[in-house]
Amino acid sequence: MRHLPGFRLVLCAALLATVAGCGPDSDQNSSPTAPVRLYGSDGNMLNGVGALVKNQPRLLDGMKGTAPLIRLTEDFRRRLNNIDPNLHDLAYAGESYDAVVIAALATQLARTTDPEVVKNYIVGVTNFGQPCTAVAECLNLAREGKDLQYVGVTVKTGLSEIGEPSTTTYGTMHFDTNNKINDVLTEYVGAGAPGTASAQPGPAPAKPSTKPTGAPLIIGDLTSHSGGNSESNPPIYAGARLAIKEINDAEGVLEKPVQWLNGDDKTDIEKAKAQLKAHISAGAQIVLGPTTSRVTAGVMEQITSSKVIAISPSATSAQLSTVVDDGRFFRTAPSDVLQGKALADVILRDGTKRISIIAMKGAYGEGLQINVRDELIKAGVPSSAIQTLNYDAPSDDAVAINVSEQVKSIKGFAPDGVLVIGLDESAQVLTQLATAGVDPRKTPAPKAD
């Protein structure tokens, strides 16, 4: 596993004036009909999105992008496959698994399901103490009242003081001629710093003699089984189900099986609020989700006022790092500050000279767009060679969107690279770009340096 090559950003800045492959030449525009390179982010670098453009053969061939993605062990893949043999993607499966396990361990250490107490244990469960990896091993340590450090599938070096990963790994992924991710070409790049993990130990574990209160632990599902983010949800759901199974196979939490409440935030703020209310009424102390940053920000006030705990496996907006959450929101997915650097590096390595970044409106799309743009500028790319546009994304990907004005603007800008930041609706954006002639299939795409 190699580390994030951030030095390349500096190198490109230093050589920009002399090396054609590092950055754009602001004095030269490509022809509007020249082939373009396509780029994506974690919300659309999915086989599910590729399936949505099945009427556009080879449209995504060569498209590159990034997503939080660790090299999963064969053992974990096998266990996931036993839960869902039909998985086509694995993004955020590990993050979802870790979120549920961390919730269970924090509850066992606290010996209560009271969210007011459990929230104080969540960060500490991943820092200090005796390292452990297997669910049964970690639960036994917690039952014995011992400090432990859960080293998870994706949470390897502990959560930070604000409850998000201190380090992560990004996958640089490539679509092939069948509009599918080619796993053979996936590169894994480390990001973050172990030193950002919390330096504050959590509260001492409750003594084993302490009588458990509030059992059973009830976790509500607040992920996107439908709506505009549904294509990314199967691995998230599989990871959560695997964690619940393995926790309960290891005798559960507080002497009882953990209960799972099915649910769906439908990638919509108001529907997520209704689902959260139903979970709380059913006794949930913790919810897994929401899965998108926009929905997460939209329900945060309800999370804090209801005094539950929310752990998102996939909400990545940098804005969530500073949200007012009363210490009740955590995530096992990294901030997009890190993904912005990774995506910028992919673009720079290709020698893309002129880039259009079109992103869905909201915390995720606009936030990551700004992060990528800033990283490119830091590397010496002229701001005049970076175009940014936004569009309204529906909560339901079946609803047609019209980005004709944005596409017209992109065509006039004549980029040799287009980055699309969105969710399932990205398929519509890519199709409309191709229809207007911003299409990598026009001529053979230029090779990366």
Give an overview of the whole structure.
This protein is an alpha/beta fold and 449 residues long. It has two domains: 2-65 and 337-435, Rossmann fold, CATH 3.40.50; 93-160 and 213-332, 3-Layer(aba) Sandwich (Rossmann fold), CATH 3.40.50.2300. It is 33% helix and 14% strand. The chain has 13 helices and 15 strands. It has helices at 7-15, 47-52, 74-83, 93-110, 115-118, 135-143, 233-249, 269-281, 293-306, 336-349, 363-378, 404-413, 426-435; strands at residues 2-3, 37-40, 64-68, 130-132, 148-150, 167-174, 187-192, 218-221, 259-261, 286-288, 309-312, 329-331, 355-360, 386-391, 417-421. An eight-stranded mixed β-sheet has the order 1-7-6-3-2-15-13-14, with helices on both faces. Strands 9-8-10-11-12 form a five-stranded parallel β-sheet, sandwiched between helices. α2 (47-52) links the parallel β2 and β3. The longest helix has 18 residues, at 93-110. The model is unreliable at 1-33 and 444-449 (pLDDT under 50). Belongs to the leucine-binding protein family. Residues 223-233 have a biased composition (Polar residues). InterPro entries: BCAA_transport, Leu-bd, Peripla_BP_I. Residues 192-234 are annotated as: Disordered. Keywords: Signal.
